């Protein structure tokens, strides 16, 4: 068994698409109608056959509350691995990405947290 798709709730799929592709550099894998929304997935440019990230609308009240509470409590919705956190931090800041936590070493890894502008905090980690 392996993880093939994981999701992040977003407030606006179009805005999330622009952020995750334009700012983060992920590659769109699927974009098709799914009810009143879209099945909109992205993959890492380094692993285009790897795990897909589904940008899922937070239309259900439980999803909205879950997303809002995580954000208010400063808890990242997900984590992305990077090979050089300082380089990635610099690149993202140049793209206008707002960090809520600058890179910091914690138990042998370095982490940073940014706002994805779609209702989530995202953590990046260099192991």
Search tags:
127 residues; alpha/beta; 2,3-Dihydroxybiphenyl 1,2-Dioxygenase, domain 1; four-stranded mixed sheet; 3 helices; 8 strands
Explain what this protein looks like in three dimensions.
With about 130 residues, the protein is α/β, with parallel strands linked by helices. The chain has a single domain, classed as Roll (2,3-Dihydroxybiphenyl 1,2-Dioxygenase, domain 1). About 25% of the residues lie in helices and about 40% in strands. The chain is built from three helices and eight strands; from the N terminus they run E-H-E-E-E-H-E-H-E-E-E. Strands 1-4-3-2 form a four-stranded mixed beta sheet. Strands 5-8-7-6 form a four-stranded mixed beta sheet.
Short description:
The protein has 127 residues and is an alpha/beta fold.
CATH superfamily: 2,3-Dihydroxybiphenyl 1,2-Dioxygenase, domain 1
Number of H/I helices: 3
Q: Radius of gyration from the CA trace?
A: 14 Å
Strand content: 35-45%
CATH class: Alpha Beta
End-to-end CA span: 24 Å
CATH topology: 2,3-Dihydroxybiphenyl 1,2-Dioxygenase, domain 1
Structural class: alpha/beta
Number of separate strands: 8
| Unreliable stretches | none
Query: How many domain regions?
Result: 1
Spatially, the strands of the biggest sheet line up as 1-4-3-2
What is the strand and helix layout of this fold?
Blueprint: E1 5-10, H1 13-23, E2 27-34, E3 37-43, E4 52-57, H2 61-72, E5 78-81, H3 85-94, E6 99-106, E7 109-115, E8 121-126
Parallel strand pairs: 1-4, 5-8
Antiparallel strand pairs: 2-3, 3-4, 6-7, 7-8
GO molecular function, one term: dioxygenase activity
Protein name: Catechol 2,3-dioxygenase
Keywords: Dioxygenase, Oxidoreductase
């Amino acid at each position: 068994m392996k993880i093939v798709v994981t999701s992040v709730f977003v407030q606006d799929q179009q805005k999330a698409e622009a952020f995750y592709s334009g700012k983060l550099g992920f590659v769109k894998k699927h974009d098709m109608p799914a009810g009143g929304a879209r099945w909109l997935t992205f993959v890492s440019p380094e692993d285009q056959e790897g795990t897909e990230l589904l940008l899922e609308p937070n239309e259900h009240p439980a999803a909205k509350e879950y997303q809002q509470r995580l954000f208010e409590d400063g808890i990242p919705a997900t984590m992305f691995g990077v090979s050089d956190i300082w380089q990635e931090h610099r690149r993202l800041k140049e793209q206008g990405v707002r960090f809520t936590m600058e890179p910091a070493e914690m138990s042998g890894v370095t982490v940073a947290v940014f706002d994805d502008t779609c209702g989530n905090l995202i953590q990046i980690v260099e192991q």
